[in-house]
Amino acid sequence: SEVNLNEFLKQTLHAFQNAYNRKIIFNNELQPSLMVDTDEQKLKQLMYIFLDNARKYSDKAITVAARIKDGQVFIQMIDQGIGIHKDELPKVFDRFYRVDKARNRKSGGSGLGLSLAKELGEVLDIKIDLESKEGIGTTVTLYLQF
Ligand code: ATP
């Protein structure tokens, strides 16, 4: 169904920020009236998976950027946390996979989040790009059609 992306993002980020007491910097370049055809609950679930990882694997504010380019909507979630070593990157979307460093963190986790995100991306027809550098941070980009 049609979702006002601005309203959706504002609400979702506000709720996340309040729930976890973690600052989110929202760089929003979208038109206030932009509508996208998607499943709001599933999109929220998808964003929460990445926001939650950004929260668990970084200590700083999380940046979320939203803009349109070449007929596609981009939603980016950027953290400046521990990042992921390039050898681990191909495996993080696998079920139950956790990088050693993450296993040792008290934040816990089952390694299921990203495998669920991959499935949600397929259901919603949202392409997911995850870029990461160990010690620098992680950027996730969602590409939505509108
Ligand atoms: P959960 O299932 O509770 O989300 P999880 O965070 O361990 O647990 P995934 O979300 O599937 O599982 O992530 C898999 C692994 O990828 C993590 O264990 C972590 O090592 C790594 N990872 C994911 N996102 C990030 C991030 N933003 N920064 C650093 N490492 C990350």
From TrEMBL:
Localization per record: Cell membrane
Chain coiled-coil ranges: none
Domain (Histidine kinase): residue spans on this chain: 1-146
Protein name according to UniProt: histidine kinase
Species annotation: Cytobacillus solani
